[in-house]
Amino acid sequence: MIGVRSGAPRRARLAALGAHVPERVVTNADLERMVDTSDAWITSRTGIRERRWAAPEEAASDLGIAAARRILDDAGVAAADVDLVIVPSASPDHLFPSTAALVAHAIGAERAAAYDLLAACSGFVYGCAQGAAMIEAGLARRVLVIGAEVMSRMVDMEDRSTCVLFGDAAAGALLVAGAPEDTTGFLGFDLGADGSGGPDLIMPAGGGRMPLSSATARGDVFLQMRGAEVFRFATRAMVESIGRLLDALGLSIDDIDLVVPHQANARIIDHAAARLGIPAERMFNNLDRYGNTSSASVPLALAEARDAGRLRPGDLVLMVGFGAGLTWGSAVARYEPREVRE
Known about the structure:
Blueprint: E1 11-20, E2 24-27, H1 28-32, H2 39-46, E3 50-53, H3 60-75, E4 84-88, H4 99-107, E5 113-117, H5 123-136, E6 142-150, H6 160-163, E7 168-178, E8 186-193, E9 201-202, E10 224-225, H7 227-249, E11 258-261, H8 266-276, H9 287-290, H10 297-307, E12 316-323, E13 327-334
Parallel strand pairs: 4-5, 4-6, 11-12
Antiparallel strand pairs: 1-7, 2-3, 6-7, 8-13, 9-10, 12-13
Helix pairs in contact: 3-4, 7-8
């Protein structure tokens, strides 16, 4: 990637979407045979009925590569013309090299800069903010943002409070440069973090504070969550972030064609819909079939909404995520999948 700031104004356009999920479907009935739980317990508390798990030989990069190719096919753009690849992931292949670098190499994006981004379930919105900023600063023209997760590797299969929640997937978007006179693009973002809640959703081991070799408790190598605290945070952060962003943009929820929230828990989504007055036909939900796929969650829902005819060219879409950090992020963008070959 070679970027020189240009005096010509640009708008970052949400131009293409794509997703890939593993073949293996794991139902609540399957989990009943693995851990002390039940379909009724999972469904009533989360709204999840099944999720996808990656095959043993699949990692986040494998899912991300497949999603990247679908996004580029959707856009009609060659990988060689991509300037930047950002992979938000809470379950990367390695601490280094970055999963983004592996994805970029595999798809043939040899000119692209590449890096991973860790904002957990808010990662896709954070990645879109960074990609849009690079485009509007004149440092890139085409940016791939791909949430890629194998969260099934991060959970303790003996902990029924967490192992039932998560699934694996990769999904993302291509952001491209467009002229202000014919591109609405990304209208705005609301991003934030509250590190005081860090211990509420954490993987204790695997970093410099607690290397895997020094972990003493079995649970330290898996995701740990204080469910009640995270639930309270999520219900508050989701509503407040959306409210701040709409106020800043001078918009109301009635101006939004589709709301795509992070798919973590049906009760959180229902709470936000009720508080904000979002009718069911303008809130997209695929949680029941995929569970929580962390940074892949929002773009997976975007791609499915497009395929189902719920997200149409020209629609104004509101995306919101929340997760470990504790982080939150919301964005409003016009979906503009016009021809991007230039």
